[in-house]
Design a protein that fits this description.
TIM Barrel; eight-stranded parallel β-barrel; 27% strand; 12 strands; 34% helix; alpha/beta; 260 residues
């Protein structure tokens, strides 16, 4: 049985971690490198770091912040935001990242997925996708892809985009529900089931986790290999935050294989 992974995801603005609800009303949390060290010591399995204003501001990812986080952690570390070229990918990897996440630029230039996979290996390329429910008939999956921090609709069907990403060489998908993001109401299980039936590469579920039972629902009802649990760990909106230890204990006691 494969080990399920718990991932802390940092949305970064000016070197600091923020938390939002459906990509709006960001609340400042902490300096990225300090929270990264705290999560590492708490034995989180992986970190994902998004420079969330880079694409919208049309600038490269903040390499200094990438390096400051990489100095504090010795676990898999993925970075995204403002990645436009192979040179951008190389700079992030050189600064200490292990994997590169592509999102808005991948939609604008899908070949960046293929180029990155050929240059650094598919295992290095994560296709990060923000999707939203829609009733428009042209979206057969019922979900549309959005980019630029969920600000811009693309006209792409979510499932078809995931298939294309896999064909181009992405080694993993981080799939975020805009509708559930930051709401603390649980993951979009239907969305994850659609994705697992469409692609064979590993899936990371994102958006909505607020309590341990949401993780249990995800891992028992879908084949997702990993879950992002940011709000549960450090959101100022929660009356109390959960520790990585108690989340893993809860999962282990319910026969979910996690790294203890």
């Amino acid at each position: 049985m494969l080990t399920k992974r718990l991932i802390a995801c940092f949305d970064i603005i000016d070197g600091r971690v923020t938390k939002a609800v459906r990509f709006q009303d960001n609340i400042d949390v902490a300096p990225a490198h300090e929270l990264a060290e705290s999560m590492y010591r708490a034995q989180i399995d992986e970190l994902i770091f998004y420079d969330i204003t880079a694409s919208n501001e049309q600038r490269p990812i903040d390499i200094k912040v990438v390096a400051s986080v990489a100095e504090k952690v010795f676990i898999p570390f993925t970075v995204g935001g403002g990645i436009k070229t192979l040179d951008d990918m190389y700079a992030a990897l050189k600064a200490g990242a292990e994997k590169i996440s592509v999102d808005s630029m991948a939609v604008r230039n899908p070949k960046i997925i293929e180029q990155g996979a050929k240059a650094f290996g598919s295992q290095c390329i994560v296709l990060s996708t923000q999707v939203k429910r829609t009733s428009e008939p042209k979206f057969k999956s019922g979900y549309e892809v959005f980019i630029d921090g969920a600000r811009v609709a693309t006209g792409l069907d979510a499932v078809e985009w995931l298939k294309q990403g896999q064909e181009l060489g992405a080694g993993e998908v981080c799939l975020n529900s805009i509708d559930n993001d930051g709401t603390l109401g649980g993951y979009d299980i239907e969305l994850m089931k659609l994705a697992e039936n469409a692609v064979s590469i590993p899936l990371i579920a994102s958006g909505g986790a607020g309590e341990p039972r949401h993780l249990l629902e995800l891992f028992t009802q879908t084949q997702s290999g990993a879950a992002i649990i940011s709000s549960m760990l450090y959101s100022p909106r929660l009356e109390r935050n959960f520790s990585v230890e108690e989340l893993k204990k809860e999962l282990s006691e319910n026969n979910i294989n996690v790294r203890i």
